[in-house]
């Protein structure tokens, strides 16, 4: 059984975000600069509000989009679409990791 308080951490997953294109690409927000891309953790109820989610529940994200996902910058029009951006970005990020051999499906 996996502990609900211990998040999965992986240097390979976090380092794989370096120099990627932002997978979130929020219209009117994204800076499209791979130099600013980091692995941005998505909200997860599995670990609670005080903890970062697992490293596989995260997306390649530029600094501008990261600010919006983390709530440091607010865009009212985005409220209804935020989850769509996050899920699409998660799909793109996971497919990159599979393509690059970092995540392996057996």
Question: Could you characterize what this model shows?
Answer:
With 106 residues, the chain is α+β, with helices and mostly antiparallel strands. The protein has one domain: Erythroid Transcription Factor GATA-1, Chain A. The chain has helices at 11-15, 63-69, 82-99; strands at 38-41, 58-61. A two-stranded antiparallel sheet has the order 1-2. The longest helix has 18 residues, at 82-99. It is globular, with a radius of gyration of 14 Å. Pfam families: YbcO (PF07102). This is DUF1364 domain-containing protein.
CATH architecture: 2-Layer Sandwich
Q: What structural class do helix, strand and pairing data support?
A: alpha+beta
What do the pLDDT scores average to? 88
Shape: globular
By CATH, the superfamily comes out as prophage-derive protein ybcO
- The CATH topology is given as Erythroid Transcription Factor GATA-1, Chain A
Features:
YbcO, DUF1364 domain-containing protein, 2 strands, 106 residues, alpha+beta, Erythroid Transcription Factor GATA-1, Chain A, single chain, 3 helices, two-stranded antiparallel ribbon, 8% strand
Entry summary:
It contains 3 helices and 2 strands, in the order αββαα.
